[in-house]
TrEMBL record:
Origin species: Ceratotherium simum simum
Keywords carried by this UniProt record: Coiled coil, Metal-binding, Zinc, Zinc-finger
SMART domains: RING, SPRY
Gene designation: LOC101394212
Coiled coil: 156-183
Residues annotated as domain RING-type: 12-53
Protein name as it appears in the record: Tripartite motif-containing protein 43-like
Organism lineage string: Eukaryota, Metazoa, Chordata, Craniata, Vertebrata
Family annotation (PROSITE patterns): B302_SPRY, ZF_RING_1, ZF_RING_2
Domain B30.2/SPRY: start-end pairs: 234-415
InterPro entries, sorted: B30.2/SPRY, B30.2/SPRY_sf, Butyrophylin_SPRY, ConA-like_dom_sf, SPRY_dom, TRIM/RBCC, Znf_RING, Znf_RING/FYVE/PHD
C-alpha cells in the first residue's frame, strides 16, 4: 500500500505515468508540463486545476526540481521496467551499460568508462541523461508551440490589414463612380440645354442668328470638351505570407494530353458574346483572329490536394483551370456547362480583363504576368488561382461540389 501511495505522488493525474518535467501550480497539485499545457490550451479562461478544479491565474511555470529528482530516483529503483537485453550488456566485461559517453554517443559499462580510450571522455548515468533528454523534448515542444503561436497573430493582423485596405479601396472606387455618375448627369443636362438653345436659334431671324452664332458655338464646344474620366474599379492585390510555400507542398507535375492548335474555340466566342453582345461579335472576332493552343491534363484527380503552375508571360488571351472529363469530350465547350472551374484572361479595348466561368464573373484585380498557380482541394471543394510573382490571391471557387474526376485545362493564344 505504501508503495502505491509513493508511486501516486510521482505520477501525473492526467497521463497516469511518471512525471516528465513536473510543474506545481498554486493549489499544490503537480502535473507533467506538456500534459498541463495541452489541458489548458483549449480551456476557458481562467483555467482550472484538472484535479480540484480550483481557478489558476498562473501563466508561467518552473520545473519542480525536487519532484524531478524524486522521479529520477524512483525510475532507478525500478530496474525491472528496463529489462537487461543483449544490447544493454557489455559484450567484453558482461556488465550492465549504465553510463552514457557524450563523445561517442553510446552506452558503456563502468569498466569501459575507465578504459584508456574512454577515460578522458565525459560520462553520465544513462538514467540521468534520459531524464535530461525528456526535459529537453518538453522544452523543444514549448519552443515549437511558441513559434506557431506567433504565426497565428501575425497572419490575423495581416488579414485584418488586407481586409481594411480592400474596404478602403472599395469605398474610394464607389465614391469615384458616384462622382462620375453625377458628372455625367450634369453633362447630360448641359447638352440637353445646349441642344434646346441651338434648336431655338435655328428659328431666329437671320441677323440675330449671325450675331449670337459665334458665342453660342464656343459654349457648345466647351460643353462637349468636358469629358468624364473613366473609373478603374481594380482592387490592389496584397501578398499573403507563406501562401506559395504552403501550396508548393502539394505541387504536382502536370503532363498535357490531346494538344490541339485551332482558331475556333467556343469558349472565347461565348465570352466575347458576353462582353460585346451579339451585334459586335463579328467585329470582336475579326479584331482578334489568332490561333490557340488547347490541351488538358493526361491525369485526373478525384481526391486530395494538388497544385500546379503555368507560365503565361505577356500572353493576352488564355484560360487555365480544371474541368471534368465529360466537358473535354464535348465539341461546343460552352461556358454555362457544369463541372468547369476556369480563369480567363481576355484582351479588350482597355487592355486585358480577368473572368471566371460558371457563371461568367469579372475579377477586378491586376492581370498576372509570369506564373499563375492553380490549387485544387477536392475534399474542401475549392479551386484557387494565385499570382506567383507577388504571392497574392487572384480568385477562388468556394464551396464547390465535385461529383466526378477533374483534369487540368489550358488554352492560350499563339503569337
Amino acid at each position: 500500500m505504501a508503495s502505491n501511495i509513493f508511486q501516486n505522488e510521482l505520477t501525473c493525474s492526467v497521463c497516469m505515468n511518471y512525471f516528465i518535467d513536473p510543474v506545481t501550480i498554486g493549489c499544490g497539485h503537480s502535473f507533467c508540463m506538456p500534459c498541463l499545457c495541452v489541458c489548458w490550451e483549449q480551456a476557458p479562461r481562467p483555467p482550472r486545476c484538472p484535479v480540484c478544479r480550483e481557478t489558476s491565474h498562473q501563466t508561467t511555470f518552473k520545473t519542480n526540481i525536487v519532484l524531478k529528482t524524486r522521479v529520477f530516483l524512483a525510475r532507478r529503483a525500478r530496474p525491472y521496467q528496463f529489462p537487461r537485453t543483449a544490447e544493454q550488456m557489455c559484450e567484453i566485461h558482461l556488465k550492465t551499460k549504465n553510463f552514457f559517453c557524450e563523445v561517442i554517443k553510446d552506452a558503456l559499462c563502468l569498466l569501459c568508462c575507465k578504459a584508456e580510450e574512454h577515460v578522458a571522455h565525459r560520462h553520465c548515468s544513462v538514467d540521468w541523461i534520459a531524464e535530461e533528454y525528456r526535459g529537453y523534448v518538453t522544452l523543444r515542444r514549448k519552443m515549437i508551440r511558441a513559434e506557431y503561436q506567433k504565426v497565428c497573430p501575425l497572419l490575423y493582423k495581416e488579414e485584418k490589414r488586407h481586409l481594411e485596405r480592400i474596404e478602403k479601396e472599395s469605398k474610394e472606387i464607389l465614391q469615384q463612380l458616384k462622382q462620375s455618375e453625377d458628372s455625367m448627369d450634369l453633362k447630360g443636362k448641359l447638352l440637353r440645354g445646349m441642344y434646346e438653345e441651338l434648336k431655338d436659334m435655328c428659328h431666329k431671324p437671320d441677323m440675330e442668328l449671325l450675331q449670337h452664332f459665334e458665342n453660342t458655338l464656343k459654349r457648345s464646344e466647351s460643353v462637349q470638351l468636358h469629358v468624364t474620366q473613366p473609373v478603374d474599379p481594380q482592387l490592389s492585390s496584397w501578398p499573403i505570407t507563406g501562401l506559395i510555400g504552403r501550396l508548393n507542398r502539394f505541387q504536382v507535375y502536370v503532363s498535357l494530353d490531346n494538344e490541339v492548335v485551332t482558331g475556333h474555340i467556343p469558349l472565347f466566342e461565348d465570352l466575347k458574346r458576353f462582353l460585346f453582345g451579339t451585334d459586335h461579335l463579328e467585329v470582336a472576332n475579326n479584331s482578334a483572329r489568332s490561333k490557340y493552343f488547347l490541351a488538358w491534363g493526361a491525369q485526373s484527380f478525384t481526391s486530395g490536394q494538388h497544385y500546379w503552375e503555368v507560365y503565361v508571360g505577356d500572353c493576352s488571351n488564355w484560360v487555365i483551370g480544371f474541368c471534368n472529363d465529360s466537358w473535354t469530350m464535348r465539341n461546343d465547350m460552352v461556358l454555362d456547362s457544369e463541372g468547369i472551374f476556369l480563369l480567363f484572361c481576355v484582351k479588350d479595348d482597355n487592355g486585358c480583363s480577368l473572368f471566371t466561368s460558371s457563371p461568367v464573373l469579372p475579377q477586378y484585380v491586376e492581370r498576372p504576368v509570369g506564373c499563375v498557380g492553380v490549387f485544387l482541394d477536392y475534399e474542401c471543394g475549392t479551386v484557387s488561382f494565385v499570382n506567383v510573382a507577388d504571392s497574392s490571391l487572384i480568385c477562388s471557387f468556394l464551396s464547390c461540389s465535385f461529383s466526378s474526376l477533374l483534369k487540368p485545362f489550358l488554352c492560350c493564344g499563339l503569337p
